[in-house]
Write a structure and sequence with these properties.
The chain has 297 residues and is α+β, with helices and mostly antiparallel strands. The protein has 13 helices and five strands. The protein has two domains: 85 residues, Orthogonal Bundle (434 Repressor (Amino-terminal Domain)), CATH 1.10.260; 177 residues, Beta-Lactamase (2-Layer Sandwich). The chain is elongated and about 75 Å long.
Length: 297
């Protein structure tokens, strides 16, 4: 213990994010894709540790130390070699580098997370934007959303967490026709959003909660996939206006502590654009009816 009674974390007791990532990626590589001849039955998935070491040009003992967390600061050249062996893209390679350069904590965090607020200008922008838009933080908590975003999906509302909604709400399976692809994408994006801070207490609580109740989340989290912050097509089956083929854009908000502005839009003149316009009209009608009822009472 330290003088203040706080247990000192040894190198083996600290979270081993780098080793966990290396092991997960190693087990996902097909030996044939790595240029190896497969002889007989292999009892373990993916590559063996000594195969990774040989392909990366390092010793088997050194690679073992990396996976076990006994060496947490390999050189960028070693990590680049491992990224090549695992076939990582630019985003995943950058994530791998961040796991090595992150400072290990000497004690658990005890401070409460600060209350995050969306800047006034961004809130005003959400209200005047004629497309579904919302703001989320690095934990995928929705911090602010315009009327059209909530009309698109009730899960997009301030106070909701998009990971919980996708994995725990039964309606999500019907809302996303490509649910398997959508869930894989959101978990990989969550990894990228967290970076080397995946052992943060609030993150651990959310991951633990989802792992207990969702086999799908548990499998995806174990893969350690990483997906860069970027736009992507998104198909949604809305109960009122039917199928929507939209594009999602994610725009970092400067000086916000990691907040992201998310906007959905449709191709001009498309059926989805017309359906999105109809959804906006329905949402405005519902809002006017609710306001009128409140005034009468």
């Amino acid at each position: 213990m330290t003088g203040g009674g706080v247990p000192r974390l040894t190198s083996m007791s600290r979270p081993n994010a780098l080793g966990e990532y290396l092991r997960a990626r190693r087990e996902l590589v097909d030996p044939a894709d790595a240029g190896l001849r497969v002889m007989g039955v292999r009892r373990t998935p993916g590559l063996r540790r000594e195969e990774v070491a040989t392909l990366a040009g390092i010793s088997a003992d050194y690679y073992l130390r990396l996976e076990q967390g006994r060496d947490r600061n390999p050189s960028p050249q070693v990590l680049a070699a491992l990224a090549r062996v695992f076939g990582l893209d630019a985003a995943a390679t950058q994530y791998l580098l961040s796991l090595s350069s992150a400072r290990p904590r000497t004690a658990p965090r005890t401070t409460k997370p600060r209350h995050e607020v969306v800047a006034v200008g961004i809130r005003q922008f959400l209200d005047v934007l004629g497309m579904p838009a919302f703001v989320e933080n690095r934990m995928f908590d929705v911090l602010g959303a315009n009327r059209l975003a909530t009309a698109l999906s009730p899960a997009i509302r301030p106070g909701a967490n998009r990971l919980r909604s996708v994995f725990l709400d039964q309606e999500a399976r019907d809302f996303y026709p490509d649910w398997e692809q959508a869930t894989a994408g959101i978990v990989a994006s969550f990894r990228a959003s967290l970076g080397p801070d995946a052992d943060d207490p609030s993150t651990a609580q959310l991951v633990g909660e989802l792992s207990l109740v969702s086999e799908r989340f548990r499998q995806l989290w174990a893969r350690h996939d990483v997906k860069a912050l970027s736009g992507a097509p998104q198909r949604m089956c809305h109960p009122q206006v039917g199928m929507l083929e939209l594009r999602r854009e994610k725009l970092p908000i400067p000086d916000s502590g990691g907040q992201i502005l998310v906007i959905y839009h449709a191709e001009a003149g498309s059926e989805s654009a017309r359906s999105l316009g109809l959804l906006g009209s329905l949402a405005a009608t519902d809002e006017a009816a609710a306001a009128s009822k409140t005034t009468r009472t």
